[in-house]
């Protein structure tokens, strides 16, 4: 440390900027200049001269600024020379350099014995087995979360006074009302696309009027509710995970438990219930907007008037299609809600796991919704509905 | 002996909306000393630290660091100043996606001519100098206790051998043994590395054990500076209450017992 009268800023920068030199000095060697983290490689090159010359001395009187990195380098050099059977002594050390070198010497890192990484066939198999078991456990956990939700819901039905109506309304607003514009626009555009693509193909057979059946069946039965569920999965599963996950991260969930508030009752039930209520409504909005978009496109592209569209729709499309579509809505809502809440509870102590779980929740929710839709299709085909 | 001023604050003003936190605040920090800033909650201790560290521009006044105007300088000059300072945040503020060793290596990556092997060895050295076991280098911040995270934060702050280190509540949230070990660490590092330490604390034991000089923030400025002994003679009601309260007496007694 400098104790010069000030201003020693420039004096100090000279001390730092001075190039490091190791030169022969009588019987031993002398080092001059500064030795610190910014000129470490030059210093290492200079100091290499001392290796392989046997027992020697390094005169440190002319050494300027020295920092921990420089002191570390000197220690390493002395250790290497000692390992080769010779000895290096530092002479004429300044007091502050001595203190620094001692301090660094006391703190030299002692690596623990390193375990050689092994990768054999059994390790690969073990990894595979762990993944399979993990996937199985994940499904079990999802079922457990579903069971927890149903149990708490049944409990709340018996004791309605404990039900959090405000929370439910809030989540209905977040999950349902705020999603109306995007779901409506999506439904409208799907109707437009179907009518447009359908008319191009059907016109070849002179069967333009069947575009009504095409639009009605595909939207009411499949696309309306499926695409709504996918959009809601993207919006809502992520927000459930983020909200519950950040509470988990800040130990708010633990705080709730200690205050005798059940997280499942307070957090999961209102959220999943809000989805159960609003997803069918959003699906209905998507259906109506899809039919509206399809009718508009059919009118513009094929000259099918809205009146004719309506008549054809009422006469030829069974109401079964609508019911088949709506039966799926609560299942999709459960999938999205359970996956979103479950992922939120998996968040660990750091922000990184929050991000990872949020994106995982969206991917899983969309994937599971599509899997469930496929299972429904198979089921309805077998049942002949 | 004329002492070398490394940080000079003149007429500093900080406000949030209509709330004035600092007004006409003056403070000098000398090379090689450990300065502790104390003050009641909301007196802007951390704001002051953030101002000097360049994280928050003040609404008025001058900040000189190493004799350079830190508020009206080019970005390159500011970066040069920043490289000579290190900050330890309250909870370490370690990058959560990196291991402790990688965290300590981050500031070193800005230096050219430092190869990866050497960087790693130096990071291990800093980790060890901060009093962490070798194995801590491979851990992620979330796997460490609060005290270890603080030490790792200190290791990162010291990575480039800065001349000034800022410590924000270095002992908050530590158990008494861990806290006094941290106090000793700060003291030892400031002595052997010639560090200037600027610390913000509520911990009277830390003030006793580490600080050469104490600056009291009150009435929107640095009301008094002086040694611990000076503080005990000040008649200002808040200062008197602070340094003569039951906790303060306990701290003094501990200090006298341990010498």
From TrEMBL, chain A:
GO terms for cellular component: ATP-binding cassette (ABC) transporter complex. It is a multi-pass membrane protein. It is found in: Cell inner membrane. Pfam families: MlaE, STAS_2. The chain crosses the membrane at residues 132-155, 175-197, 209-233, 272-300, 321-345, 365-383. SUPFAM superfamilies: SpoIIaa-like (SSF52091). It comes from the Bacteria. One of its GO terms (molecular function) is phospholipid transporter activity. Residues 31-128 form the STAS domain. Keywords: Cell inner membrane, Cell membrane, Membrane, Transmembrane, Transmembrane helix. PROSITE patterns: STAS. The keyword Ion transport does not apply. NCBIfam families: MlaE family lipid ABC transporter permease subunit. Belongs to the MlaE permease family. Could be part of an ABC transporter complex. This is Phospholipid/cholesterol/gamma-HCH transport system permease protein. It comes from Roseinatronobacter thiooxidans.
TrEMBL record, chain B:
One of its GO terms (molecular function) is ATP binding. InterPro entries: AAA+_ATPase (IPR003593), ABC_transporter-like_ATP-bd (IPR003439), ABC_transporter-like_CS (IPR017871), P-loop_NTPase (IPR027417). SMART domains: AAA. Pfam families: ABC_tran. PROSITE patterns: ABC_TRANSPORTER_1, ABC_TRANSPORTER_2. Residues 7-244 form the ABC transporter domain. Gene3D superfamilies: P-loop containing nucleotide triphosphate hydrolases. It comes from the Bacteria. Keywords: ATP-binding, Nucleotide-binding, Transport. This is Phospholipid/cholesterol/gamma-HCH transport system ATP-binding protein.
């Amino acid at each position: 440390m400098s104790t010069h009268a000030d201003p020693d800023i420039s004096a100090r920068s000279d001390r730092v900027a001075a190039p490091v030199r190791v030169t022969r000095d009588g019987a031993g060697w002398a080092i001059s200049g500064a030795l610190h983290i910014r000129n470490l490689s030059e210093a290492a090159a200079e100091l290499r001269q001392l290796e392989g010359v046997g027992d020697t001395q390094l005169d440190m009187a002319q050494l300027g600024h020295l920092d921990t990195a420089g002191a570390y380098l000197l220690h390493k050099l002395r250790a290497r020379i000692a390992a080769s059977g010779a000895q290096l002594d530092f002479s004429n050390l300044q007091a502050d350099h001595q203190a620094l070198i001692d301090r660094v010497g006391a703190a030299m890192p002692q690596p623990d014995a390193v375990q050689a990484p092994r990768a054999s066939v059994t390790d690969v198999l073990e990894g595979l087995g762990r993944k399979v078991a993990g996937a199985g456990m994940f499904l079990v956990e999802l079922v457990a979360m579903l069971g927890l939700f149903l149990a708490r819901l049944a409990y709340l039905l018996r004791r309605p006074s404990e039900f959090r109506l405000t929370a439910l309304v809030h989540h209905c607003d977040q999950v349902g009302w705020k999603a109306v514009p995007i779901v409506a626009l999506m439904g409208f555009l799907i109707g437009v696309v179907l009518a447009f693509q359908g008319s191009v193909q059907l016109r070849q057979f002179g069967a333009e009027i069947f575009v009504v059946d095409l639009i009605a069946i595909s939207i009411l039965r499949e696309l309306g509710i499926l695409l709504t569920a996918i959009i809601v999965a993207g919006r809502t599963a992520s927000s459930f995970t983020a909200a519950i996950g950040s509470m988990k991260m800040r130990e708010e969930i633990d705080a709730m438990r200690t205050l005798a508030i059940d997280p499942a009752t307070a957090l999961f039930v209102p959220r999943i219930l809000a989805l159960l209520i609003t997803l069918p409504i959003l699906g209905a909005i998507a259906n109506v907007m899809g039919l509206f978009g399809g009718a508009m496109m059919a009118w513009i592209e094929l000259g099918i008037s809205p009146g004719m569209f309506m008549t054809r729709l009422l006469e030829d499309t069974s109401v079964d299609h609508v019911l088949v579509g709506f039966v799926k809505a609560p299942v999709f809502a459960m999938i999205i809600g359970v996956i979103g809440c479950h992922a939120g509870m998996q968040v660990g102590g750091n922000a990184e796991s929050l991000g990872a779980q949020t994106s995982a929740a969206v991917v899983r929710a969309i994937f599971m919704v599509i899997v469930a839709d496929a299972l429904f299709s198979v089921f309805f085909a077998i049942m002949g509905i | 002996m004329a002492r070398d001023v490394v940080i000079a604050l003149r007429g500093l003003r900080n406000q949030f909306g209509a709330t004035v936190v600092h007004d006409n605040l003056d403070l000098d920090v000398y090379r090689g000393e450990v300065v502790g800033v104390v003050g009641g909650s909301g007196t802007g201790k951390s704001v002051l630290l953030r101002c000097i560290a360049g994280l928050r521009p003040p609404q008025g006044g001058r900040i000189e660091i190493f004799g350079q105007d830190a508020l009206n300088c080019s970005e390159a000059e500011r970066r040069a100043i920043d490289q000579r300072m290190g900050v330890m945040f309250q909870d370490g503020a370690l990058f959560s996606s990196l291991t402790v060793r990688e965290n300590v290596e981050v500031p070193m990556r800005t230096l050219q001519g430092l190869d990866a092997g050497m960087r790693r060895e130096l990071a291990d050295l800093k980790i060890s100098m901060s009093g962490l076991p070798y194995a801590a280098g491979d851990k992620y911040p979330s796997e460490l206790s609060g005290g270890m995270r603080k030490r790792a934060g200190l290791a990162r702050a010291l990575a480039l051998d800065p001349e000034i280190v800022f410590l924000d509540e270095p002992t908050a949230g530590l158990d008494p043994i861990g806290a006094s070990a941290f106090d000793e660490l700060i003291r030892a590092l400031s002595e052997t590395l010639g560090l200037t330490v600027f610390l913000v604390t509520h911990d009277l034991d830390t003030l006793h054990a580490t600080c050469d000089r104490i600056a009291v923030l009150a009435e929107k400025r640095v009301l008094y500076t002086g040694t611990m002994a000076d503080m005990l003679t000040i008649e200002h009601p808040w200062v008197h209450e602070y340094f003569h309260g039951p906790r303060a007496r306990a701290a003094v007694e501990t200090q006298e017992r341990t010498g």
